[in-house]
């Protein structure tokens, strides 16, 4: 180690000496030149003047002094002096500094807020032990080409026996449970998990214990583990909560533990966990309703596990008819938990890119401000250089001031990000899987520091280099006017071009997304959402054990809801449209049977007789359901016009329709009516094919109550709750909201992207206009003498006006062209989100170009008007 250390010290001395030599040579050259010019001015011949200067600066004492001066920047007291001096200068120009800090805060705050959003949903590791080894096991029907995602109890037990690349496999379900107590019925969000789930995930309760072996067996004791937030709100963080009893679904459950706050599974809104009973005798092999997570053995790749799962599925298909055409897949756990990952990925990319572009505009704006300020300070830099300060010494001083600005902007940006995240958190659905809260935490602060450092590099280095490059003699001779040279003007214009180009990219993207949202809102829904109020109900089997009890509840609830004041129609449906709920089935005419997977894809809905009236869906032919269409009558169905046309050209009344479920079950119906097409799954594709069946023949325990009222539906919410509670006081009523709100929430991803892009584009445009105005005004101030000379030689005010505005417009035109080319290349990434709008819409590009050029002319007009009023005599006298 001593030899290594000695070698390192030698290398450091050599590097320091080399750098010192280069620094000294540059310092000596500058001082020799200045001394020689002074000698020549004193009447000394040029050759003798340079010889005397070289002798003066070749003295060893002088060299030692220069060495100490060159390396003084390593001393802490020198840095403190620079910081104090920079702080005094910024305080003296606090108006300018406040503008720079506010601009930086805007860029840093937006960037940090978007990073925090992306970090919580996509980047931060799952709160489990070695999360990279966790996979979600999915099932898929190769014949129907349907990704089912869930496994049966028999599938899970077979995988546990035959899989060799997993340390263990556990099952879970996300459920909503009815919690009863003194405060009345309440719906809580629960995770039903197998006994080994906590151990597989590698998380222990903070209080009590987890589920022991056999907790998921039939007849085991009813136990529950609660979440930290539920423990604090429901039990006031009572440390003796273990052993107390909760009544879930009218069954007592003993609390055995409390999970830590950072444990998020399977969704962030999960409040408690209870055992998921595994009973092979009660569940058939084709009943696939379990979600399965597995932990890979050390060193096993996901592709290896996927190959083993496929091999096991093939063996099961040979042994069991119910497993025919079923295969298993291994999916990263995070992708599986977040059902909206296919939306969050592109949305996060779009938001992150727009925030980064705004950050670049901010840095360009601040760099322009710094360049303008460095021009004003050329006399100061010249004087300091003439007094012996080297160029690196001057650069360090300017960078120190940039550091102060960036740190102030970083602190203000973190505060702005915290405020922005409070707005974002309210707009994000609570069931989207994320790790941690949307808040400025340790990761956000670290990212803030990184962005602050990056901003120093982006806006601080160029002004520091530009402001210390000119020769001190020329600076002292010409004063601050040297800063108006072509090199400085070129730097300003390049930064303005960058700002305008970035603004053009954001404006085009925002306009395209807004146009897409506008077109989506124009798509005919096939139903009328205005004036409809909905409520969610779940009937438990322990209270409604049979179909007769369920149908009786349906009839009573519909009758009570229809009797409410102002209600024109009331109905029941199992799945709402545009609510990410769609049971997919195959449908075909019984007269022309087809093989599995070759039927028409359709959405099956269980509805009551008044559903079509309540939703505003017109009946085109035939009839709807009646009270006679109950369990004793022949099964009947109403189909949508699209399905009718696909079946037999529309003439389907009284035909027999066969419906095949993904699990292979088949049912036959007589078609009695044809309803108009309506949207259920998407707005971008053709209308869904629908099969409507009567709730009196196939009663559902999962239902939505709908009431239509001509008046505002929101005031009816309390009355609807009371109507349900009058039938069953212990039944929780949840998700009471308008159907219009459901549709609006469905459009939320596209709307949020369009809104964020619009806000960022407007911010970038305003910053660019401020930069254009500031640079134009500064340029006019520096060129006051030139303008005075022009006017003294006969230039009119109109000509001066055209001169200044024309120069600004030429710069703006270059920025617009560069921006539109960049927008054309980048907006193709938005094509997956666009609907009814082309990514290369010429009208959008032309409108953005016209807007930017008009704003550029407006930003240049005020300084140009001021320049046209310059009095030539006053301008020349001031010089």
The gist of it:
With about 900 residues, the protein is α+β, with helices and mostly antiparallel strands.
Share in β-strands: 15-25%
Give the neighbour order of strands across the main sheet.
3-4-9-6-8-7
* Annotation field: number of helices: 26
Report low-confidence residues grouped into runs of 5 or more: 14-20, 59-67, 479-484
Oligomer: single chain
Helix content: 40-55%
The counted number of beta strands is 22
First-last Cα distance: 67 Å
What is the CA-atom radius of gyration, in angstroms?
37 Å
The average pLDDT score comes to 81
Largest sheet: 6 strands, mixed, barrel
C-alpha geometry: elongated
Helix/strand class:
alpha+beta
Question: What features would you describe in this structure?
Answer:
The structure is a single chain. The chain is an alpha+beta fold. The chain has 26 helices and 22 strands. It has a 6-stranded mixed barrel with strand order 3-4-9-6-8-7. Strands 14-15-20-17-19-18 form a 6-stranded mixed barrel. It has a 4-stranded antiparallel sheet with strand order 13-21-12-22. A hairpin with a 2-residue loop joins strand 7 and strand 8 (251-258). The longest helix has 40 residues, at 2-41. The protein is elongated and about 120 Å long. The two termini are 67 Å apart. The model is unreliable at 14-20, 59-67 and 479-484 (pLDDT under 50).
């Amino acid at each position: 180690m001593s030899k290594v250390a000695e070698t390192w010290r030698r290398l450091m001395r050599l590097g320091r000496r080399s750098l010192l030599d280069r620094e000294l040579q540059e310092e000596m050259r500058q001082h020799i030149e200045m001394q020689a010019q002074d000698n020549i001015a004193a009447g000394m011949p040029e050759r003798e003047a340079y010889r005397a200067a070289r002798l003066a600066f070749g003295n060893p004492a002088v060299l030692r002094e220069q060495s100490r001066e060159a390396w003084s920047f390593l001393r802490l007291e020198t840095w403190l002096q620079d910081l104090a001096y920079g702080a005094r200068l910024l305080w003296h120009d606090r108006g300018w500094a406040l503008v720079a800090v506010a601009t930086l805060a805007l860029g840093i705050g937006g960037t940090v807020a978007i990073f925090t959003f992306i970090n919580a949903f996509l980047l931060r590791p799952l709160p489990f032990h070695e999360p990279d080894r966790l996979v979600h096991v999915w099932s898929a029907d190769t014949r129907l080409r349907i990704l089912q995602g869930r496994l049966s109890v028999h599938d899970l037990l077979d995988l546990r026996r035959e899989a060799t690349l997993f340390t263990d496999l556990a099952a879970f379900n996300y459920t909503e449970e009815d919690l009863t107590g003194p405060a009345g019925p309440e719906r809580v969000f629960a995770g039903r998990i197998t006994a080994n789930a906590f151990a597989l995930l590698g998380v222990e309760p903070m209080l009590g214990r987890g589920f022991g072996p056999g907790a998921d067996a039939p007849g085991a004791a009813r136990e529950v583990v609660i979440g930290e937030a539920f423990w604090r709100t429901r039990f006031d963080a009572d440390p003796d909560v273990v052993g107390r009893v909760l009544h879930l679904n009218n069954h007592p459950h003993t609390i055995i533990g409390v999970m830590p706050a950072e444990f998020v599974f399977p969704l962030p809104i999960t409040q408690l966990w209870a055992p998921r009973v595994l009973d092979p005798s009660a569940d058939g092999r084709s009943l696939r309703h379990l979600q399965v997570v597995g932990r890979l053995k050390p060193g096993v790749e996901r592709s290896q596990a996927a190959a083993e799962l496929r091999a096991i599925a093939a063996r099961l298909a040979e042994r069991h008819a119910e497993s025919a055409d079923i295969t298993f897949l291994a999916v990263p756990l995070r992708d599986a938990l977040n059902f909206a990952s296919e939306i969050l990925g592109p949305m996060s990319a779009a938001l992150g890119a727009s925030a980064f572009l705004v950050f670049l505009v901010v840095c360009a704006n601040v760099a322009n401000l710094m360049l303008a300020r460095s021009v004003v300070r050329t006399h100061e830099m010249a004087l300091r250089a003439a007094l012996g300060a080297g160029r690196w010494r001057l650069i360090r001083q300017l960078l120190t001031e940039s550091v102060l600005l960036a740190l102030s902007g970083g602190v203000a940006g973190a505060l702005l990000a915290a405020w922005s995240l409070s707005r974002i958190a309210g707009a994000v659905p609570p069931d989207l899987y994320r790790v941690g809260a949307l808040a400025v935490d340790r990761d956000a602060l670290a990212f803030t520091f990184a962005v602050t450092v990056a901003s120093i590099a982006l806006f601080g280095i160029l002004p520091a280099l530009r402001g210390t490059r000119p020769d001190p003699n020329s600076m002292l001779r010409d004063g601050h006017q040297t800063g108006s040279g072509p090199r400085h003007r070129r730097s300003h214009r390049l930064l303005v071009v960058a700002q305008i180009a970035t603004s053009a990219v954001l404006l085009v993207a925002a306009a395209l997304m807004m146009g897409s949202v506008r077109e989506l809102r124009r798509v005919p829904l096939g139903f009328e959402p205005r004036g409809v109020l909905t409520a969610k109900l779940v009937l438990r089997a322990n209270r409604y054990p049979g179909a007769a009890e369920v149908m009786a509840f349906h009839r009573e609830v519909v009758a009570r809801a229809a009797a409410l004041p102002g209600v024109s129609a009331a109905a029941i449906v199992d799945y709402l449209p545009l609510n990410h709920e769609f049971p997919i089935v195959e449908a075909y005419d019984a007269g022309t049977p087809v093989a599995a997977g070759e039927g028409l894809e359709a959405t099956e809905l269980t509805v009551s007789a008044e559903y079509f009236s309540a939703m505003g869906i017109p009946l085109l032919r035939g009839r709807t359901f009646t009270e006679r269409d109950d369990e004793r009558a022949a099964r009947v169905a109403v189909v949508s016009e699209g399905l009718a046309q696909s079946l037999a050209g529309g003439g389907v009344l009284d035909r027999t329709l066969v419906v095949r479920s993904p699990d292979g079950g088949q049912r036959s119906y007589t078609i009695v009516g044809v309803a108009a097409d309506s949207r259920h799954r998407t707005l971008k594709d053709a209308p869904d094919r629908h099969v409507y069946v009567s709730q009196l023949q196939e009663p559902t325990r999962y239902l939505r109550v709908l009431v239509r009222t001509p008046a505002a539906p929101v005031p009816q919410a309390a009355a609807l709750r009371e109507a349900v509670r009058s039938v069953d006081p212990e039944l929780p009523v949840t998700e009471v909201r308008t159907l219009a709100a459901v549709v609006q929430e469905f459009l939320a991803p596209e709307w949020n992207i369009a809104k964020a892009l619009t806000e960022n584009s407007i911010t970038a445009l305003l910053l660019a206009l401020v930069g254009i105005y500031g640079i134009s005004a500064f340029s006019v101030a520096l060129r006051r003498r030139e303008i005075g000379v022009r006017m003294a030689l006969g230039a009119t005010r109109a000509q001066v006006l055209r001169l200044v505005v024309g120069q600004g417009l030429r710069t703006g035109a270059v920025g617009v062209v560069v921006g539109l080319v960049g927008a054309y290349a980048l907006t193709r990434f938005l094509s997956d989100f666009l609907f009814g709008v082309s990514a290369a819409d010429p009208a959008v590009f032309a409108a953005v170009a016209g807007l930017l050029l008009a704003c550029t002319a407006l930003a240049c007009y005020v300084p140009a008007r001021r320049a046209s009023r310059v009095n030539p005599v006053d301008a020349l006298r001031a010089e």
